[in-house]
From TrEMBL, chain A:
<keyword id="KW-0067">ATP-binding</keyword>
<dbReference type="InterPro" id="IPR003593">
    <property type="entry name" value="AAA+_ATPase"/>
</dbReference>
<dbReference type="GO" id="GO:0055085">
    <property type="term" value="P:transmembrane transport"/>
</dbReference>
<dbReference type="InterPro" id="IPR013563">
    <property type="entry name" value="Oligopep_ABC_C"/>
</dbReference>
<protein>
    <submittedName>
        <fullName>Dipeptide ABC transporter ATP-binding protein</fullName>
    </submittedName>
</protein>
UniProtKB/TrEMBL annotation, chain B:
<keyword id="KW-0067">ATP-binding</keyword>
<comment type="similarity">
    <text>Belongs to the ABC transporter superfamily.</text>
</comment>
<dbReference type="Pfam" id="PF00005">
    <property type="entry name" value="ABC_tran"/>
</dbReference>
<dbReference type="GO" id="GO:0005524">
    <property type="term" value="F:ATP binding"/>
</dbReference>
<dbReference type="InterPro" id="IPR013563">
    <property type="entry name" value="Oligopep_ABC_C"/>
</dbReference>
Automatic annotation (TrEMBL), chain C:
<feature type="transmembrane region" description="Helical">
    <location>
        <begin position="226"/>
        <end position="253"/>
    </location>
</feature>
<feature type="transmembrane region" description="Helical">
    <location>
        <begin position="131"/>
        <end position="155"/>
    </location>
</feature>
<keyword id="KW-1003">Cell membrane</keyword>
<dbReference type="GO" id="GO:0005886">
    <property type="term" value="C:plasma membrane"/>
</dbReference>
<dbReference type="GO" id="GO:0055085">
    <property type="term" value="P:transmembrane transport"/>
</dbReference>
UniProtKB/TrEMBL annotation, chain D:
<feature type="transmembrane region" description="Helical">
    <location>
        <begin position="217"/>
        <end position="243"/>
    </location>
</feature>
<dbReference type="InterPro" id="IPR050366">
    <property type="entry name" value="BP-dependent_transpt_permease"/>
</dbReference>
<protein>
    <submittedName>
        <fullName>ABC transporter permease</fullName>
    </submittedName>
</protein>
<dbReference type="GO" id="GO:0005886">
    <property type="term" value="C:plasma membrane"/>
</dbReference>
<feature type="transmembrane region" description="Helical">
    <location>
        <begin position="162"/>
        <end position="178"/>
    </location>
</feature>
Length: 338, 347, 305, 298, 530
């Protein structure tokens, strides 16, 4: 099946900044600024990028946890943003989210049973009498025992809590799950357990994931396709292989080179970016990366590059990057300025 | 084993917290050397006692914690025997420290310049003015743009990366012989992390100091350290030079750690990751024998019952595992090669 | 900062409108006809009616309210019903006494509270800590009018130099103690808990790691930060004292604004009450505004958005 | 599957409810805090006395008995008699329930209203928040006791009106605290998780937010009880509140003050009773605060 | 240091031996002499009392504290002696020239402190003002029967009344009849024209002829008067007098004992012993013209039945109340007026305390098991005490009375509207004439606000009261009042409690002080001797 399950178009999320004498809106945090992408049913699309680039905001906007400023989010052919509150509430059954913090993401005062039954009750997915059986099944699915149903969150470890969060998301039989840094807070050994579980669930339940992470290692492991964001914009999107083996955007390239590899023999030539990520309040003109880009020219400063695919540079189908100089950089015609 | 030109030698360090629920053995048998001018990385999962180890060296453990055993030899003297006043002379002057959270480690009500200058005032008895002048030099050294203006900035006016640079400036102000960096980049983005790590490495060469780098990121270790100590549940389980450790890890825990790491430079082709089953024991319910035994695919009766000691494997590597001893009662194993198989048959 | 200040000042306007409206409505809810009171016990209906007319009490409430606010903005709070004196004069004669009382009491409570709080925090768990905190709680638990009476009985009557009543000179001692006690207790407790919280912050560890002496760590690095929330409490205290001095003013026969309000509620002298409460509220709001500004000034972390 | 195997100790763990676990923890900490325990025992003592005490005393002693007026404390009259010859001890015992009643109900009413406003304000934010909080500012800008005075003047004298007056000025205190807590809890991911599941606002507010902000509310309530009692006695001192011959303690004190020179016991015993009750609540509330505050651990 | 007025510029002004210094300090002493300094001065008499004055304008208030101050500034035509005999003051003689005309001869040697001469015109200006509806004086009722004031010659004036009104001379002795400078009155009218309130000017410029003149008024704190050195008669004994507000009993006593006040009023009966027992101070007592009473609402059940009222009256032990509330310092009342009031008759017997009889009466009235009712009081300590004791005594005859304390404003309003069952209040027969005491309290014209809060209406009483106030013959008047008193005792529209005494705390060094039965301090002869 290769139908589009989720289609995001021209999504913008601006957070107003109030100020001035009258406390009126004086500016916006342009957290997500006009991004479009699609996710096919059953695949995993990852969003990577540095802190504050708008990854979570994208996820939250899709779920309407924050109302997006503009754009459209089509899910299974329906425009989510056009739904009223009640309709949206029903719709939520199909879209779930798993959060980062295993401690903050479940109510410490409810037992696992209460957590799961409440979720099912809200969406009325199973009749009351079948609930128990369903909960047992869920617990086993996420690798916990049915005997742990009556425990409270504090009796579980971080990894186990994360499984409870997953069980809660699964309890309403969603089609799409947004994983916002779902394994970032876990120790490596536990992280591996949860990653394996997510993959297994996807295979078994034909789930679709929107996987948000800043860890490219994790992303490479779990995704089918990867989307790189910088300052609220998509800079590159490609299937996993193309992106890691053949990154085209200078940002993607430096990002990959900046990540330390756990292999001392592989000492490579690192590109160290200068400066910090600029503020999303007044993002740089033209290409938002130009202030830090080792290749930047005047054109980059003035003209905003569009996402594009060029065969010249050996880009696979569906691989797009937003850079004016994909070809030049690929051919080595353009040299880094630092 | 004690490395000859090591600047600090920590031996069987023990630090516990005496809480209402009983003694928490946060650090319980930590042994390592930091060779002069080199970088030692300490890796371990959360709660393994890395930070407490570093605070113990600084003698900054607060009640209800207490260092109750072992020794810390710095320049031939035992730090644990020093008075508080003597320690104060060492802190910030001979041993400095950078903390994990650049956001909260700087005092919000003083300017960055004041905070750097204070180190000079404390240790070199300089006047405020002179100290500030030297602070400016430090800011330049750590590569903060327009340092003059930053001198008067308050911490909240700086970005995370800048703050961490300021922290480094404070730590390095008096050119210490040993810099302890407790997860200095965990809170930062990868691109900034790369900047900071490079900065620390550069300054290390320039100043010729030794660095104790604490991290949970094996990638960081591989890229920046000369030696590595792996900690698990309050103990060092393996100590080796960095190449040996990554190429030929000995301890099952080290092996498991490396194998469970998803890597961006290698495609797993859809394979599942190897995992370490179970979870880290809580420090107030530690197992009897080897702390790793409950999670170890090779564990035998012996492992469950008796605690192995950290032994020299050769002249530079040490490991805390029964497999490498004469007492080993299990089948012959090559930990690295047999790990995955043992791991899956176990369950 | 300037923009922030202006914006905050503008935000005070709705609060003050609310306050004026509430005072006004409250005064009109209170049973008792001011015209009747003013005309006297023996006035006949016509006289009362005339009085009502003259006082504008026959106008619809909104008209009366607008007139009240309109005049107030121009600095005219009307005239007392009982004696016809301008309310602003009546308030002017008393406000400084109340302000002085509040200021002295606040100074006293800051002085005692800070010292006690720091001692307590730095010797956490010691006998001194426990004793100071028990004393503080005791101070908080004492009805201050009772404390005032006890002070008169056991201090003023024994020491000729300390007058039992009035205001000015040595007479300020007892009321200031009476009023300052609870504040000192609050500040001591706040300082203590704030110190204890700050002392566990990362930057304190940084200072120690720098080799800074423990005394400097406490008094330079910790106290500066610990004082930030204390400032807020001091501000609130001060604001509260302005209107809360009623009982102390009554006990010590001090002719302050608090007692003035009480007396005038009893006398149904609405213009006096309205004016005084409005002035007290304005003072309170301004003090808190100042506190807010100084808080932001002290606390570098708070963005001046 | 390897994930299902769990460490042995995990299996053995008892089923414990976090509320109970939490309470146990708080209780353990409280138990170690001698002052808080003293406060707690005093509160229990006062509450029990307020129920049982009046049954044990001789009600005749509540009636005026001019021939025995202004007696000093003695075997017959433990705390002496007042200016009408009534036994002060008996009056204090009978007044205890009134004092506690005023404290308790003014806090409960203020709490209910304040918590509701705080929840709504914090959860919905924006205009709702602005309006509610501005209104709270207005209430706060009124000097507390003067507001109470005005309200009682408007409503008339009487214990219940005192309760309303005190409750009104406690509303902004509670509302602010609750709002602050709501804002911090609201940020937690499980609230977003509930929204993502399609839970209604009411469910989120009352089931998921409210239970998690109880600690500051409880602490504030205990401490405000002390304030409420003090305020009520203050109002009684000004002659507002309980109607004679109700033996409300503030009224006893107010009457006693006239005899403080010659017969200090009349003001002393009610005064010290007030101090003790208020102190008890302060000690206990303080202890609970410390016990609930994760920052002040150990 | 003080300004150097020796012309010695640049010289060492700190030098101690400056020739001009002595004179300097003297003047400085005077200019610096604000209120705080004057207090300790022996020539300044300090009187500490509970309440501040309401107004200095004698037409602008009707309360004792105000009158107590006003009486020192403004003199009346006549005054009453300690035993309530009328004596000349600004008037030298007076007589009824016709049934409805009183003629007064005035002193010819008196000047107001602003220099305006005192004469018949001045008297007329004052009476016109107090009766002016625009001024709406609270004391207009004292003179409402005056139809016209006729200036006969410069020092002779006629008061023409609507009907023959015998008590007029005693009304003119009331402090409400204090003479204000006509200049000041004119200025006050001007201020009114300009939009001011009546009294605005006078409250700041109270100009009279008295032995003291106004110095300052710090509202809520104190009023200071200084000696009028141009006084026509014997000048005052002290240079100044400060009336200080000190509401707390305890505080006032401390002030007296520590010497920061010379005279305090009131001393609560329970503190009398203490004050008398303290060295250097004592309690001065004076019988008052006041009555404390419990009013019934005779228009509503059950108090519309005289039997019930009698029963309640008989259920209360006045002596016990006197003892319990006033420490026995008061005189139990028989009727509405005391023995020092004109019109009092010792022939009338009050209802005796007799609980047995009270129960019978109740049963007779149809309440064998008693009834539920309320007692209202304001937050006066004395009245609340009364309420508590009465409540306990009523319980004995089965009447269950709830006490409700009302705030003063509400109390006055609600009792004036007749919403009460029983209420506790007082009345001062300031003029010392039964008319003042009875007409307001019992005449059906005065129901409600005007004084008759019992809503008592009895044609016979009305007729007798009307007749008595018009009758000029004293004996006849006394007879008429005796009849009224008899009816009032029998009908018991109110429960007459007692007539209190004034208890004034006074320091031993204060000489020549006395307090008038009408409550006013007599300060002219006071001296402070050390
Ligand atoms: N509610 C909000 N109001 C104002 N600004 C916001 C809000 N939420 C997010 N932002 C801003 O939007 C930008 C993007 O935030 P977002 O959380 O999406 O980043 P992210 O990519 O998820 O980062 P991280 O890796 O740190 O989670 C940031 O600058 C953030 O400060
Ligand atoms: N104040 C304390 N009281 C009790 N236990 C403590 C205290 N501080 C630390 N511990 C315990 O000591 C152990 C070691 O903590 P430490 O901070 O050294 O871990 P770490 O290796 O630095 O972990 P992380 O990677 O999370 O920083 C932990 O189990 C922790 O629970
Ligand atoms: Mg995020
Ligand atoms: Mg750590």
């Amino acid at each position: 099946m290769t139908t589009q399950l989720l289609k995001v178009q021209n999504l913008k999320q601006y957070f107003p900044i109030k100020g001035g004498v009258l406390g009126r809106k004086i500016n916006d945090v342009k957290a997500v600024d006009d991004i479009s992408f699609e996710i096919k049913a059953g695949e995993t699309l990852s969003i990577v990028g540095e802190s504050g680039c708008g990854k979570s905001t994208t996820g939250r906007a899709i779920l309407r946890l924050d109302e997006p400023t503009s754009g459209s989010v089509e899910f299974d052919g329906k425009d989510l943003l056009a739904l009223n509150k009640g309709q949206m509430r029903k719709m939520r059954k199909d879209l779930q989210i798993i959060f980062q913090d295993p401690y903050a993401s479940i109510n410490p005062r409810q037992t696992v049973r209460q957590i799961l039954s409440e979720a099912m009750e809200i969406q009325k997915v199973v009749p009351k009498d079948k609930m128990d059986a369903r909960m047992k099944e869920l617990m086993e699915t996420v690798g916990l025992g049915a005997h742990q149903l009556d425990r409270f969150p504090h009796e579980f470890s971080g990894g186990q809590r994360q499984r409870i969060g997953i069980a809660r998301a699964l309890s309403v039989d969603p089609k799409l799950i947004i994983c916002d840094e779902s394994v970032s807070a876990l120790d490596v050994s536990i992280q591996a357990q949860v990653l394996n579980l997510l993959k297994k669930l996807q295979r078994e339940l034909n789930l679709t994931y929107l996987f948000i992470s800043h860890d490219l290692g994790v992303v490479r492991h779990i995704s089918d396709r990867v989307l790189v964001m910088y300052l609220g914009k998509i800079v590159e999107i490609a299937d996993k292989k193309s992106l890691f083996d053949n990154p085209k955007h200078p940002y993607t390239q430096t990002l990959l080179s900046a990540i330390p590899v756990p292999d001392p023999t592989k000492k490579k030539d690192q590109v160290i970016l200068k400066g910090d990520v600029p503020s999303p309040i007044d993002p740089p003109s033209g290409c938002r990366f130009h202030t830090r880009c080792p290749f930047a020219t005047d054109k980059c400063k003035n003209e905003e590059p569009l996402l594009r695919n060029t065969e010249v540079a050996g880009m696979a189908e569906g691989h797009m990057a937003a850079c004016h100089y994909i070809e030049e950089i690929a051919s080595g015609e353009m040299k880094r300025q630092y | 084993m004690e490395i000859k030109d090591s600047i600090i030698h920590v031996d069987e360090l023990q630090t516990s917290f005496f809480t209402e629920r009983g003694e928490v053995k946060a650090v319980d048998g930590v042994t390592f050397d930091v060779p002069a001018g080199k970088t030692l990385g300490i890796v371990g999962e959360s709660g393994s006692g890395k930070s407490i180890t570093s605070l113990s060296i600084m003698r900054l453990i607060e009640s209800p914690g207490e260092t109750i055993g072992g020794s810390i030899t710095f320049n031939g003297e035992d730090l644990l025997a020093k008075s508080e006043a003597q320690m104060r002379k060492i802190r910030g002057k001979e041993i400095s420290m950078i903390f994990q959270e650049p956001m909260t480690s700087l005092n919000p009500v003083f300017t960055v310049g004041d905070q750097i200058a204070e180190a000079y005032q404390v240790h070199e008895g300089l006047s405020k003015k002179e100290a500030l002048k030297k602070a400016l030099g430090m800011l330049e050294l750590v590569g903060i743009p327009s340092p003059k203006a930053r001198l008067k900035a308050y911490p909240h006016e700086l970005s995370g990366g800048m703050r961490q640079r300021a922290m480094i400036a404070i730590a390095l102000a008096c050119r210490p012989q040993l810099l302890i960096a407790d997860e200095p980049t965990t809170a930062l983005d990868v691109t900034i992390q790369a900047q900071i790590l490079r900065l620390i490495n550069g300054l290390q060469e320039e100043l010729g100091m030794a660095v104790l780098l604490i991290t949970h990121d094996l990638g960081v270790v591989a890229e920046t350290c000369d030696y590595v100590a792996v900690m698990y549940a309050g103990k060092v389980v393996e100590y080796a030079d960095v190449n040996t450790l990554f190429a030929d890890p000995k301890h099952p825990y080290t092996v498991g750690l490396l194998k469970s790491l998803p890597r961006h430079d290698i495609d797993m082709e859809g394979e599942d990751l190897d995992v370490i089953k179970g979870m880290v024991p809580s420090p107030n319910e530690l197992p009897e024998g080897c702390r790793f035994a409950p999670r170890c695919p090779f564990a035998t009766e012996l492992c469950h019952n008796e605690l192995p000691s950290l032994r020299d494997l050769n002249d530079k590597d040490q490991v805390r595992c029964w497999i490498y001893t004469d007492q080993w009662d299990g089948p012959e194993v090559n930990v690295q090669n047999d790990y995955s198989a043992a791991q899956s048959t176990e369950s | 900062m300037l923009i922030y200040t202006i914006r905050r000042l503008l935000q005070l306007i709705p609060t003050l409108i609310g306050v004026s409206l509430m005072v006004f409505l409250l005064m009109h809810l209170i049973p008792g006809d001011p015209a009747q009171i003013m005309a006297g016990e023996r006035a006949d209906e016509a006289q009362v009616e005339q009085m009502r007319e003259r006082l504008g009490l026959n106008d619809p409430l909104p008209v009366q309210y607008l007139r009240f606010v309109g005049d107030a903005v121009q600095g005219d709070l009307g005239n007392s019903i009982r004696n016809g004196r301008a309310v602003t004069d009546e308030i002017g004669a008393r406000i400084w006494i109340t302000v002085e009382l509040a200021v002295y009491s606040t100074i006293l409570s800051i002085f005692i509270g800070l010292i006690a709080g720091i001692i307590s925090a730095t010797r956490r768990g010691s006998f001194a800590d426990m004793a100071l905190m028990v004393i503080a709680l005791f101070g908080l638990s004492m009805p201050n009018f009772w404390l005032g009476l006890m002070l008169i009985q056991y201090v003023a009557l024994r020491f000729e130099a300390i007058p039992p009543s009035g205001w000015g000179g040595a007479a300020v001692i007892l009321p200031v103690i009476t009023l300052g006690t609870a504040g000192a207790a609050v500040i001591a407790r706040m300082t203590r808990s704030s110190m204890l919280e700050v002392i566990h912050q990362d930057y304190i560890r940084t200072a120690r790691a720098k080799g800074v002496k423990e005394r400097l760590v406490i008094y330079k690095h910790a106290l500066r930060n610990a004082l930030i929330p204390v400032v807020t409490v001091v501000g609130l205290q001060f604001g509260g004292l302005l209107g809360g001095a009623v009982l102390t003013e009554t006990v010590f026969a001090i002719n302050g604004l608090g007692r003035f309000v009480v007396d005038n509620i009893a006398a149904r002298d609405f213009p006096n009450v309205q004016g005084a409460v409005l002035v007290l509220a304005v003072l309170f709001v301004l003090v808190n505004f100042a506190v807010d500004l100084s808080y932001r000034f002290l606390n570098k972390r708070v963005e001046l958005d | 599957m390897e994930e299902t195997t769990l460490p042995a100790q995990q299996e053995q763990q008892k089923r414990v409810n976090p509320q109970i676990e939490n309470l146990k923890m708080v209780w353990r900490k409280l138990k170690k805090n001698k002052l808080a325990m003293a406060g707690g025992f005093l509160i229990i003592f006062f509450v029990l006395t307020s129920f049982i005490g009046p049954l044990l005393t001789n009600d005749e002693l509540l009636n005026p008995n001019v021939s025995d007026r202004l007696q000093a404390p003695s075997g017959e009259y433990w705390f002496g008699t007042d200016h009408h010859g009534r036994d002060i001890f008996t009056r204090i015992i009978h007044g205890m329930s009134i004092t506690l009643y005023i404290g308790f109900f003014s806090v409960v009413i203020g709490l209910i209203v304040g918590v509701f406003l705080g929840l709504v304000s914090g959860y919905y934010g924006r205009l709702t928040d602005t309006i509610i909080m501005r209104f709270m500012d207005v209430l706060l800008a009124f000097p507390g006791i003067l507001l109470a005075l005005g309200i009682i003047a408007a409503l008339g004298n009487g214990i219940n009106n005192v309760i309303i007056a005190i409750a009104i000025f406690s509303v902004p205190v509670f509302a602010r605290i609750v709002r602050g807590s709501v804002l911090s809890v609201r940020k937690l991911e499980y609230i977003d998780a509930m929204r993502a599941l399609g839970a209604s606002d009411a469910r989120i507010i009352f089931k998921h937010i409210l239970p998690n902000i109880m600690s500051p509310i409880i602490v504030q309530a205990t401490l405000f009880l002390a304030t409420a009692i003090l305020t009520a006695t203050g109002l009684s001192f000004l002659g507002l509140g309980a109607q004679p011959p109700t033996p409300e303690w503030g009224a006893l004190l107010a009457a006693g003050r006239n005899y403080i020179f010659e017969y200090p016991h009349i003001a002393f015993f009610p005064g010290i009773s007030i101090v003790l009750v208020v102190l008890a609540f302060n000690l206990f509330g303080d202890g609970v605060r410390d016990a609930l505050d994760p920052k002040l651990k150990s | 240091s003080e300004p150097n007025n020796t012309g010695d510029t640049g010289a060492d002004t700190n030098a101690p031996d400056n020739g001009a210094e002595n004179t300097d300090t003297e003047t400085d002493g005077e200019t610096n002499g604000d209120a705080a300094d004057v207090e300790v001065d022996d020539s300044n008499l300090v009187i500490a009392t509970t309440s501040d004055i309401v107004a200095l304008d004698p037409h602008g208030s009707n309360d004792v504290p105000s009158s107590a101050v006003q009486t020192n500034i403004f003199e009346t035509l006549l005054m009453q002696s300690e035993d309530m005999e009328l004596e000349p003051l600004l008037a030298t003689s007076w007589e009824a020239t016709e049934d409805n005309v009183w003629r007064f001869e005035l002193r010819d040697d008196v000047e107001f402190t602003d220099g305006t001469p005192f004469n018949a015109e001045a008297v007329k200006a004052n009476l016109d003002r107090v009766l002016d509806p625009d001024v709406a004086s609270q004391r207009a009722f004292l003179y409402e029967m005056v139809e016209e004031v006729v200036v006969v010659d410069e020092f002779t004036v006629d008061f023409v009344t609507e009907y023959p009104f015998a008590p007029l001379p005693s009304h003119l002795a009331h402090s409400g009849g204090g003479m204000i400078s006509p200049e000041a009155i004119a200025s006050d009218y001007e201020a009114m024209e300009a939009g001011g309130q009546p009294g605005d000017y006078l409250n700041e410029n109270p100009i009279g002829t008295g032995f003291f003149q106004f110095e300052s008024w710090n509202p809520g704190a104190e009023v200071v008067l200084t000696r009028n050195d141009n006084y026509w008669g014997e000048p005052a004994g002290v240079e100044s007098v400060t009336f200080r507000v000190s509401p707390e009993d305890l505080t006032r006593i401390s002030e007296l004992e520590t010497g920061s006040a010379h005279i305090i009023y009131p001393v609560s009966p329970s503190d009398q012993e203490r004050v008398d027992g303290t060295e250097g101070v004592s309690v001065y007592t004076q019988e008052s013209l006041s009555l404390s009473y419990i009013g019934f609402n005779v228009e509503a059940e059950p108090f519309d039945d005289p039997l019930v009222r009698q029963a309640v009256t008989m259920a209360i032990d006045n002596d016990m109340l006197n003892e319990g509330v006033m420490q026995g310092t008061a005189t139990p009342a028989v009727g509405p007026i005391g023995s020092n009031v004109f019109g009092f008759s010792d022939e009338v017997e009050g209802l005796e305390f007799d609980q047995e009889r009270a129960r019978e009466l109740l049963a007779e009235a149809g309440y064998p098991d008693g009834f539920d009712t309320t007692i209202w009081t304001n937050d006066s300590r004395e009245r609340m005490d009364v309420a508590e004791l009465v409540q306990a005594q009523l319980a004995e005859i089965g009447v269950n009375a709830e006490i409700e304390v009302l705030e003063w404003g509400a109390y006055l309003e609600n009792t004036a509207d007749g919403q009460h069952d029983m209420f506790i209040l007082g009345w001062v027969t300031v003029t010392g004439d039964a008319d003042y005491g009875m007409y307001a309290l019992f005449h059906s014209d005065n129901q409600g606000e005007a004084g008759n809060r019992s809503f008592y209406a009895n044609d016979e009483v009305d007729a007798l009261l009307d007749q008595a106030r018009q009758e000029s013959d004293e004996a006849t008047r006394e007879d008429l009042y005796e009849q009224v008193m008899e009816i009032l005792v029998e009908e018991a529209p109110m429960l007459y409690l007692y007539h209190t005494q004034y208890l004034v705390g006074i320091r031993d060094e204060v000489q020549g002080f006395w307090k008038h039965p009408n409550g006013l301090y007599q300060l002219q002869d006071v001296t402070i001797e050390n």
